[in-house]
Amino acid sequence: MENNLIYQIGLTRINGVGDVLARHLLETVGDAKAVFTEKARLLEKIPGIGAKHIAEIRRPEVLRLAEEEATFVEKHKIKTFLITAPDYPARLKECPDAPVLFYFKGKAELNASRVISLVGTRKSTPYGRALTETLIHDLAEIYPELLIVSGLAYGIDIQAHRSALEANLPTVGVLAHGLDLIYPSMHRDTARNMLDRGGLLTDYPSRTNPDRQNFVKRNRIVAGLSEATVVIESAAKGGSLITADIAFSYGRDVLTFPGRTTDEQSKGCNALIRQNKAALITSADDLIAALCWENPLQPHNAPQQIPITFPEDSVHQKVVSHFRTTKEIHINTLARLVEIPVYELSSILFDLEMEGILKVLPGGMYRLA
Question: What predicted TM-score, i.e. pTM, was given to this entire model?
């Protein structure tokens, strides 16, 4: 058995050391083995590490449990991804609370060029299930390698996975327990089919129960793996709204379908739109436009030059110039680039939006119209 794997898994079994601190340890000492073999006096110099942490690192039970998990991983041909490894999913690595290590079984390319997460209520309606199926099938016709991510739960999640399989798209389920279990059990056949083209992913070791808090925690992976999260249906409260909030906090695109004001399973979606946390979409074409994806099925036309009505030396022109080399810019980043306070920049951006030059996106992001 590879000793490095034991040490890597051991990082996740240290009481009091979560993903953020474990990542800091790795970046400081160099590798997982050094965390367990480095002298205590050197570890204590690392910010955030105290005597209690070192005592937990030295506890024999940590590496014993890690060795048991490593045996399970090798027996079932499970792949592990350490956050410092070059093949760790790039989008997920950008997230501050990304899992320091996760387990994956399947064949999906987690660094696919296009990845979206589809989430929604467990009490889905025929309307929501039809939206999910239509969206995925329409996208599959244009992007046959699009990766669909969801949580294998009842309702919209399982509909997303099954629709992806029907459309021959890879799909990954993010679990709230170890890979020795499928929950709910009635989704076992779908999960098995997903292994051939997509896969199953978790940051929980085997023998972990699907406790409620685990589902909340795993939502950060659902949001972090993808460039955009689509909320199909959601009541006023629910796990899909937590996922949307996490994606929004990461600066990722959030999109949702609107519903009638009287529909209980659309109240969460309508709230996301009202709060400017999500872009309103009604079709695959809307999603493609919102994410600025090129459509290879449509003839490519050279981009039109946008007429600028402001003087060449104006501050408005200075702001627009920063959009020529990048797709999107956050208002705070733009404020630093143009050296204009945010409160003044907001007024300039509003002028440019009214002129049809810029488009405002969720999360304080802007791009050329």
Answer: 0.81
